[in-house]
Design brief:
heterodimer, A: alpha+beta, Arc Repressor Mutant, subunit A, 4-stranded mixed sheet, 4 strands, about 10% strand, elongated, B: alpha/beta, Rossmann fold, Ubiquitin-like (UB roll), de novo design (two linked rop proteins), 3 domains, 4-stranded parallel sheet, 19 helices, about 45% helix, disordered C terminus, binds flavin mononucleotide, binds iron/sulfur cluster, binds FE2/S2 (inorganic) cluster
Amino acid sequence: MVKFSDSKLKEVEQIIQRYPEGKQKSALIPVLHLAQEEFGGWLSAETMDYVASVLNLQPIEVYEVATFYSMYNLKPVGRYLFEVCQTGPCMLNGSDNIIKYIFEKLGIRPGETTTDGMFTLKTVECLGACGYAPMMQLGKNFREHLTKEKVDAVIDECRQKAAINN
Amino acid sequence: MGRKLLLDNIGVEGIRYYDAYRKHGGYRSVEKALKTMTPEQVTDEVKKSGLRGRGGAGFPTGMKWGFLAKPAGVPRYLVVNADESEPGTFKDRYLMEFIPHLLIEGIITSSYAIGSNRSYIYIRGEFAWIDGILEQAITEAKNNGFLGKNILGSGFDCEIYVQRGAGAYICGEETALLESLEGKRGNPRIKPPFPAVKGLWDCPTVVNNVETIAAVVPIVNDGGDAYAKIGIGKSTGTKLISACGNINKPGVYELEMNISVEEFIYSDEYCGGIANKKRLKACIPGGSSVPILPANLLLTTAKGEKRMMTYESLADGGFATGSMMGSGGFIVMDEDQCVVKHTYTLARFYRHESCGQCSPCREGTGWMEKILLNIDNGKGKMSDIDLLWDIQRKIEGNTICPLGDAAAWPVAAAIRHFRDEFEWHVLNPEECLKKNYGLANYAKPLEIVA
Ligand SMILES: Cc1cc2nc3c(=O)[nH]c(=O)nc-3n(C[C@H](O)[C@H](O)[C@H](O)COP(=O)(O)O)c2cc1C
Ligand code: SF4
Ligand code: FES
């Protein structure tokens, strides 16, 4: 069942405190981030309904928002999500080659997940790292100045992390 | 070396944290404003400085503050726009990541000027790690008495909160940002009313860019007149430029607005010239939304003058032969880059980011993307070029918010200046998949400039 732990509920309470009385709808976007982190890296209908109940909103208010913003995943994703920027400035510095290389290495095209559920590849639009191109987002951080070697290293790092946490 | 007002201490060890920041003169503007100035006096200094909004539109900041409605008993808000999503732009990120207290200090001083007791920094969701850096700076400022109740015994209260977005370029548009901050989809509002009258939760609100708010610090410290003396004409002060693309030294540079574009690109102090000893083909000087210029028009205006890194000079010649300062995202393309392909990626970006409220923008951006992809893939027709031109004309000026214009302009400028490259793609469907059109006759090939 989808339910925040007590400490996460406290975090939600703190987020609501940032806004004036009665404006807790503003907490929706931060709380959806929290929910996505807590409940498997994506927002299921069940998760969205739960967030609605926590914030006293109608479920539709949550769906509207969850479907608007690109960081919310509406389908399950792999354990590690590679979000590679493909906009102009990154393209000038070879982002296409990085996307191609990830396909060669892992056999996944943008939008696909490896069969072991470990990696998902997604192409995204400019992430504000154009001077450090090509780049991708992985979790809460950016991996910049990507080369084939760096992609190899990132993949190894993820596999090692997964092995430790299993 | 040009003078630096924002990044002068960026190299100081530990400048990200309060102690080093304070030791190097940090929070003086708060002390000066709260102890020796009235809010009106602070606003006057900002007016005198000639500071123009650094988010893209270049609107005079002091004037914007002057428009703020002040009905009794209604709270006012300062909202800092840290959404930074315009392709080519990564300057606000740099400032927040490496010298976060400068932003916090600017917010406190600016909040005092406009009478805001509660301020929000709306930061793009992908900058997740910067959220923590800002939170820490806020905590440090609070622990040292610069935030909270009755700051420095002045009777002025101020709180700052950080709100992360969740991936949407449109939330950089100020009214979409406010919608998002209210927990809704980022659909821009119809203006008027402007945020200065009806903004966050229907209260009077000032929305300013990160760099704009940071610039308030040196303005208050040294006076608006001193700030106005830097730069040329109405381009006062310093400007952060984020340079990227095919240059030797991509990065964020603070410039006095009095150097030439040529110096900016070729001098070792800044971009350090074109990478891999190639030649300059084209440049988008102010973020993806502004017109692309071929090298010759970039370096020299149509009148034959040296083009300078100022609002006026970059715009000289209008859209026929000029461009814009925009957000300061400086995208450089070398001789081997394909203008059609680059324009296609931008069209795809705008289609992806259109909020969908207005049909010209929602439909037009999709059509432009498809046509450009076809041309880039050697599947275009000559008539497609005119069709593209026609579509962008029909988007421009016919939408609720300026994203429509922002999507139209790059396509228009690419066709205006690089029509022969588009035609070459149509005429050479096989060849265009294998090689690029190259420099052709756009640039006076520049080797090295002193
Ligand atoms: C589509 C679109 C995206 C924008 N993105 C940003 C942005 O990321 N950051 C920003 O400061 N301003 C952005 N702006 C401009 C804001 O609407 C607004 O003018 C600005 O925040 C005002 O601050 P300033 O006067 O300090 O520049 C954007 C505008 C549009 C139309
Ligand atoms: S111009 Fe585009 S982004 Fe702006 S309101 Fe209309 S549809 Fe939305
Ligand atoms: S274009 Fe890739 S980060 Fe900006």
